Amino acid sequence: MSFTLPDLPFSHDALENLGMSKETLEFHHDLHHKAYVDNGNKLIAGTEWESKSVEDIIMGTYDGGSVAQNGIFNNASQHWNHTQFWQMIGPNGKAMPAVLEKEISNNFGSFEKFKEEFTAAGAGQFGSGWCWLVQDQDGSLKVTKTENGVNPVCFNQNTLLGCDVWEHSYYIDFRNKRPAYLSNFIDKLVDWESVASRLK
Questions:
Q1: C-alpha to C-alpha distances, 146 to 3, 43, 56, 65, 129, nearest whole angstrom
Q2: Overall fold of domain 98-197
Q3: Which residue, 158, 162, 160, is CA-closest to 146?
Q4: Digitized pLDDT (tens) for each residue of the chain, 200 residues in all
Q5: Whether pTM exceeds 0.90
Q6: N or C: which end of the chain has fewer CB within 10 A?
Q7: For 81-157, where are the E strands, in sequence order?
């Protein structure tokens, strides 16, 4: 099926006081995400993927360990990644539901240990990519990182939280200080109710 750019679930200036500027969202959502949608639609037109879901396209075009993925995968996966990203952040400062707090404590020892592991994964991702909190098939939670547009769908993992560490996500607001961006992301931007709702 064709890709559609989703509206942001909040206004472009809603995160100004939380470390993500209107200018960043105008570039990140309106230009970068839109480019993945437009390019992806051009690439799947007239192919076997035209009628498939974005998840099916990701699974069907992912090339294992190759860093240089094909164009259809790159645009489909980045469209999926960003669609999730907008749903995982927000301006409302929602507290972490008890069920998620318990799962994080059980799997990482404490929220602070989780935060350390998550921010280290994002800061340690060389070049462009993402860091994730995922739920594995056995129900356990773990922190992972992926290069470029690769995401947990490729590994049959349930995505709970993802942070975009491509420079377009943070450079306007944080310049080259990726660790500061990641810490701010965890402390101020995550919609923990959205994260908890993804638990299986």
A1: 23, 23, 19, 11, 6
A2: minor pseudopilin epsh fold (3.55.40)
A3: 162
A4: 899 999 999 999 999 999 999 999 999 999 999 999 999 999 999 999 999 999 999 999 999 877 678 999 999 999 999 999 999 999 987 789 999 999 999 999 999 999 999 999 999 999 999 999 999 999 999 999 999 999 999 999 999 999 999 999 999 999 999 999 999 999 999 999 999 999 99
A5: yes
A6: C
A7: 129-135, 141-147
Helix (H, G, I), strand (E, B) or coil at 46: coil
Q: Which CATH architecture has domain 20-88?
A: Orthogonal Bundle (1.10)
Contact 123, 48 (CB under 8 A): no
How far from each other are the two terminal CA atoms of the chain, in whole angstroms?
Answer: 26
**Which of 154, 149, 164, 153 has its CA nearest to residue 198?**
153
